[in-house]
Specification:
Strand order of the largest sheet: 3-2-1-4-5-6
Oligomer: single chain
Helix content: 40-55%
Strand content: 5-15%
Number of domains: 2
CATH superfamily of the largest domain: HAD superfamily/HAD-like
Number of helices: 9
Shape: globular
Order of helices and strands: EHHHHHEHEHEHEEH
Largest sheet: 6 strands, parallel
CATH architecture of the largest domain: 3-Layer(aba) Sandwich
Amino acid sequence: MVDWQQIKTVFLDMDGTLLDLYFDNYFWLEFVPLQYAQAMGIAHHEASEVLAEKYRAVEGTMDWYCVDYWTRQLGLDIENLKREAAHYIDVHPHVHDFLAALHASDRRILLVTNAHRKSLALKMEKTGLDRYFDAIVCAHDYGVPKENPDFWVRLQKKFPYEPQSTLLVEDSLSVLHSARKYGIGHLLAITRPDSRQDARQIDEFPAVASFEGLVSRLVSASTS
């Protein structure tokens, strides 16, 4: 699915792509509602309904990804709550092998994430993935999320790259659409961002369930 001979730069998403999205789903849909219910003195199901409405109101914006925003909105210490639940943070299978092979291939590798810097720091601390990247890009530093095509314009100014020789691996379809609109030449979707959910059927982009097949193809391309 990827013609590695054409790829000079690789952009990799974090949550749901390199990392199992189960942590984030559990945190926002189970753990935070429980904490909010206790803080507000309401039932768990009521808290879940209130939070679902708050989530929908800012989904796809920078606030949706902002630890500080949710701390203010909910009156909860989101950063510390994430540390309490951090034992659920996990790397998808074959990711370390893929990143090691990618690093050895001398291609430029950037982690490109919407995650807030506080979440990013915690996940890098827990996984050690930061050692593989030439740069780590946080959308909060650019003022717009990856869903906005302007993000790719601002990224281009900071880290000049050739869109047609760039690969983006990403679990969010809205981000993939944004990248395609900007002109990123190679796009790959992840069909199973949460290991505890079934794989999604994705027809509009090339897609894989795991990095296993990518590792062997990358190694073959690098030695051919």
